[in-house]
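## tool: complex_structure
## caller: assistant
## args:
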Amino acid sequence: MSTSRRFEVFAIVFATVAPLVYVIAVENNYALITYHPITYSFGFGAQQPGEGPAMYWFGWMATAALAGGGAGLVAGLLPAALTRFLRPALAWLVPLGVLVAFVILLRDYFLR
Amino acid sequence: MWTALLIIHGLLAVALLGAITHQACSACLPARKPAASFQQRFRAVPGGGYVDAIIFLYILTFLLGAFIYPEYRVSIRVVVEQMEAWAENGAFEIKEHFAAVGMAMLPAYRFFWRQPSAENQRTRNALTALLAVIVWWNFLTGHIINNIRGFGA
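## result:
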């Protein structure tokens, strides 16, 4: 595969896998790291709040970036015959679906 | 310091909003040339020239937002909850998730603008429109939250 095609495969897979893993990570709290803003400290994995709140957003993104980046890199190394099924539309259809999913998941905020 | 950073975050967001709106309009509603009216000239810009600026502004705005987010979590969100401003709180929850999803789209966004073939046009337009929706939502939500309780208020 050419470098351009490899990057295309990486970009499509990253835009597909990272949002999907992100929404799964949010729903199940699969945070790679936790930030404790009161003590300015990071901890590994999803930790319980200590002094003050615990922030998982950074950890969810780290989980998604790792999964998406890994999947994209692996897909970029695959032979062209195996990546032909990848459709460019996945790069926006999946993120769009994830955006809609978040609005649905968080609808209770707007229905109180 | 937090107020200054929030203002810079807001100014970067304004620049990003202008750039992505210009590009999205030119991609999805291209004007016939020569453009005569203001609306047509607004839609007649060469969208490809905005790509790197939009990516740079998105990442910079995102990083600055991520840096000041803990201060929001500790000082602002509690107040918004105490005010029972649930819709506004929910809008901010959506904002943080939208911003993360937008980051994941940036490599594809760049690729499909850098390979401007006719068969990529729908993907390019859809990615641009989706990024525009994210940027508009995040901008308006940030503005509303700042109106409720800006840093230092």
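## assistant note: Strands of chain A lie at 33-36, 41-44. Residues 5-110 of chain A form one domain. Handing back to user.
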